[in-house]
Amino acid sequence: MVTMNLTMTLTTAFLTGLCGVVAAQENEPLPLTGNGKSLQAQYAKMLETLHEQIEAQLPDVTPSKKAAFLKARTELAGLVAPKEDAAPETYKAFQAAKELAEAKALTGARAILVDAEALLTNEELDSKLMKASILRHGTPRGLAEFAQQGEEEKALIEMLFADPILMRQILIAGGANGGEYGEAMQVYTEILKASKQANKAGILQRLALGTSLQQPWLEGKKKGGVYGIVYTDNRTPDGQVARYLHYEKAYLASELDPAFKDMNTWECRFISNDPYTNQELQWTRKMLRTYRPDHITNDDYKWRYTRFVKSDVPYQSPNWDEALGTKTQQIVAGGGKCGPRAFYGRTLTRAFGIPARRSTQTGHAAMNRWTPDGWTICFGAWWSMAWCGPQGGLDFLLDSQARENEDAYLQVLRAKWIGDALGEEDVSIRQYGRGGGFWDGLAFYKKRAIVEDAKIEALELVGGMKLGESDELLGDEKADEIKIPEEQKKIIVDKNGVITIPAVACTGPQNNTDKVAFMKSWDDGMQIHYQRLGNRPEILRYSVEAPAAGKYELTANVATVSTQQSVIFRLNRRTLVNTTLPYTKGMWQQSEPEIIELRKGRNSIMVTLRAPNRGVSLKEFQLKPVK
Q1: What's the distance, CA 383 to chain centroid?
Q2: Which end of the chain is more exposed for a tag (fewer CB within 10 A), N or C?
Q3: Could you tell me where the beta strands, DSSP code E, fall in 561-615?
Q4: Domain span at residue 316?
Q5: Is 519 in the same domain as 619?
Q6: Is residue 202 within 8 Å of residue 222, measured between CB atoms?
Q7: Which CATH number is 608's domain given?
């Protein structure tokens, strides 16, 4: 039973409000029982009453101002974009007319918004407005389908309507996917039952609610009609409760990005909705910590985690082979083109608690992701060319930017809620700014005004279409110089004559190159990463003092993410040893021993990989005397 947990203090983060109703339905409606029909009538009457009460309390809008705003929007809606083969002059004229119409519409909206400020900054009507918005988005029929299932289901709807703090948090977070508010409450309740941490105000409560809103359908539960906006999501294969608990455990173990703790509920929607298993998320974190820890600590958030796609997932026809492991391990080991690389790019960020979304584009798959400076597209074209489910890229970009001003964004939502209460048509989230009734149109242009006033600029593309569909070098493979402490380069000979050579103890190169990256290991010490990109081999040179001449077993402690890799050792400029490396799935593992001969005193060892090669991380080499 949900008790006081549902009335927690509202988080200060304010989120998106895309709660409009769309006509398309994804599923056949469930038949209504006699009780269901009664509930539908009850919810419909509630919506009708709220409509009348809210309409009666709205201030009059100056007719001339309203007419000017609507006229500008009509002019904008009447513009038709030229066809692709149109003359440049035609396209230029269209752009000029569009900019003029948009400017007129924004100017008209600003004039009305000044007059409506007292209304939109006042929370007195919020309880009624929020109930009306949920009823409009979820629809009386949709809510009745859920509530008719039993007293517990009916009670969840009643509990939601009785809790203005929870309603506000839900609607600021964008509402329930598909308008399935009852189902979202059901998932949220199950998470609260499973976790004491989710019952406390903070990031884990926000994650629990965001998870419930984005994927409100419990496994094994039949969906009814889907009446509202549905964001395309794969189901979490382990279920929402297990997914939430996975992140809770990772967060409490300090495995997630430092920024995770400050994510709001809307942002949490795009963290826990990954289509791969919890095991694969855990493997991704462990693999990156072992194999490429530099991608975790990258100061450039646009490339943090996702740089791994460029550095270590080759652009090629994928090699789907179950012998390589899980789906994510197959992508990393076997490569892929735009689709698999975008899929795994999203998983990389989500695994560490950073939001990411699809960025579907004509003939191409990309991704967009959160950064502290705003959302950006990785490995694809500009926002105007992208969409995610029913939402166009520009609409998402605008919304994400406007929400940076939390107080002003609440005015956006109140205008939107008024439109919902009055039954107005929504502004299209696919065709940027098109359609919509008066109040919903004001909500859209309030977002435009927020962004314009704050002079918020969209971030540049990361990787872009060209680099998203190629294995070309980025030009910045050579990292900044790193200071390697002398103690990390110390070669150790133990009492049994076993020689341990740290990978970073090479005499050349002694710092980062295009091919070789020196880096701190996640747990302890340092390591070298021999990079995949680039065709010119690099030679690592070591000088080793052997306490005695004779035969030694040579092994390397390596981490690899692909099969059929080998390393070439050249001993004292004469003997060549070609060693096949194990496929370690990104974890540290010793290679099979090779028998070599060393002379007493100084020996030189050169190490290289033939080009082209896949990446290999090197921790240390070991020389063990053969008895």
Answers
A1: 16
A2: C
A3: 565-571, 575-581, 589-590, 594-598, 601-608
A4: 274-390+456-472
A5: yes
A6: no
A7: 2.60.120.260
Q: Which amino acid is at 572?
A: N
Could you give the CA distance from residue 541 to residue 523 in angstroms, rounded to a whole number?
A: 25
Q: Look at the block and give the residue holding tokens 């294969």.
A: 237
How far apart CA 223 and CA 29 sit, in angstroms, is: 8
Indicate whether 610 and 508 sit together in one domain.
yes
Q: How far apart are CA 134 and CA 370, in angstroms?
A: 28
Domain-located, residue 431: no
Task: Give just the sign of the alpha carbon dihedral 267, 269, 270, 272.
Answer: positive
Question: What is the distance between the alpha carbons of residues 444 and 398, in angstroms, rounded to a whole number?
Answer: 9
Name the residue among 351, 204, 175 with its Cα closest to residue 278: 351
Give bridge partners of residue 517 from the DSSP assignment: 529
Q: Which of 472, 499, 521 is the last residue before a domain boundary? A: 472
In whole angstroms, what is the distance from residue 617 CA to residue 530 CA? 6
Whether residue 460 is found in the same domain as residue 313: yes
Is 0.85 surpassed by the pTM of this model?
yes
For residue 305, what are the contacts with CB-CB under 8 A and spacing of at least 6?
A: 288, 295, 296, 298, 348, 349, 351, 352, 354
Determine the Cα–Cα distance for residues 33 and 204; give it in Å rounded to an integer.
38
Give the 3-state secondary structure of residue 320: coil
Q: Is residue 569 part of a domain?
A: yes
Helical H segments across 139-234, by residue range: 140-147, 151-161, 164-172, 181-194, 203-214
Cα distance between residue 392 and residue 386, in whole Å: 6
DSSP string, 232-251: --PPPTT-HHHHHHHHHHHH
Kindly state the helix (H) or strand (E) to which residue 49 belongs, with its residue range: helix 34-57
The answer to whether residues 413 and 17 touch, using CB atoms and an 8 Å cutoff, is: yes
Number of domains in the chain: 2
Q: What stretches in the chain show pLDDT beneath 50?
A: 1-26
- Both 468 and 540 in a single domain? no
- Residues 460, 551, single domain; the answer is no
180-224 tens-digit pLDDT = 999 999 999 999 999 999 999 999 999 999 999 999 988 777 677
Helix, strand, or coil (residue 141): helix
Q: Looking at the structure, tell me whether residues 507 and 616 fall in a common domain.
A: yes
At which of 448, 472, 496 does a domain end?
Answer: 472
**Is residue 498 one of the residues assigned to a domain?**
yes
User: Do 291 and 370 fall into the same domain?
Assistant: yes
Given strand 391-392, what is the order of strands in its sheet? 376-378, 364-369, 356-361, 386-388, 391-392
Q: Is residue 377 domain-shared with residue 526, that is, in the same domain?
A: no
Q: What DSSP element (H or E) covers 619?
A: strand 616-625
Give yes or no for a contact between 302 and 459, defined as CB atoms under 8 angstroms apart: yes
Asked if the structure places residue 289 within a domain, the reply is yes
Distance CA 575, CA 472 (A): 34
Residue 614: left (phi > 0), alpha (psi -120 to 50), or beta? Answer: beta
Q: Which residue has the tokens 């520009």?
A: 394
> Who contacts 251 (Cβ-Cβ below 8 Å, separation ≥6)?
203, 204, 260, 261, 353
Apex 83 CA angle, 77 and 89, nearest 5: 90
